[in-house]
């Protein structure tokens, strides 16, 4: 069946990297799909996708090697199960606070005995190139599960989260983490201490640590520190930066 090359690369101890797509456009998703990133993050939490356009966008990845991964809106099992049936080769789950929640979101990602994913979905034969029973037998090996830690509480529980079977990456959402840090009266230095705590737990457990990077400099820094899942740039950011550069270069015309 179709192999998740991003997951294979991660299992080999390498870094995997990709951008996010937030605009409600299967055409943009298709364009990015052909640019040979390890994976492309389709954002259903803060992005503009509807279920219909997300399903359309995921179909554009059937002919490429780049793995489509979807950030779902919540921990709701039916939603997680459904995006995998649509063709996602991984899910990103926001706001995971502890190991119990991590186990809960892993259940709809994997078929028994590892989880409790329900069998079905008309696109599965296209995704896998094999029969449905063969897909059910082998899909667990090809699905990437990323859980996000975005609060001080989550970071305090990060090692137990990383040890949950089926969790491949624990991803820091630095923006929400900073909101939580400041809400508790702490500062940027404390935020960085928490970031390093996640990285240290990654070294102890072997589960990859990830980071959402706003700039190339941040991505290079986190790469050098040992983060192995890096999201850098989005379609929205690329368009904004590109048009601002055009505007600034032509302001004296």
Provide the descriptors you would attach to this structure in a database record.
alpha/beta; TIM Barrel; about 45% helix
Structure explained in plain terms:
This protein has 13 helices and eight strands. By secondary structure, the chain is of the alpha/beta class. The radius of gyration is 18 Å and the shape is globular. Helix 10 crosses helix 11. It has one domain: TIM Barrel (Alpha-Beta Barrel), CATH 3.20.20.60. Strands 1-2-3-4-5-6-7-8 form an eight-stranded parallel beta barrel, surrounded by eight helices. The model has no long low-confidence stretch (mean pLDDT 96).
Give a brief rundown of this model.
With 253 residues, the chain is of the alpha/beta class.
| Number of DSSP E strands | 8
Query: CATH architecture, please?
Result: Alpha-Beta Barrel
In order across it, which strands form the biggest sheet? 1-2-3-4-5-6-7-8
- Give the CA-CA distance, first to last residue: 56 Å
CATH topology: TIM Barrel
Radius of gyration equals: 18 Å
Give the percentage of residues in beta strands: 15-25%
Order of helices and strands: HEHEHEHEHHHEHHEHHEHEH
What is the approximate shape?
globular
Name the quaternary structure. single chain
Helix vs. strand class: alpha/beta
Question: What summary fits the major beta sheet?
Answer: 8 strands, parallel, barrel
According to CATH, the homologous superfamily is: Phosphoenolpyruvate-binding domains
Q: In DSSP terms, counting alpha (H) and pi (I) runs of 4 or more, how many helices? A: 13
The helix fraction, in percent, is: 40-55%
Mean pLDDT: 96
Unreliably modeled segments: none
How many independent structural domains? 1
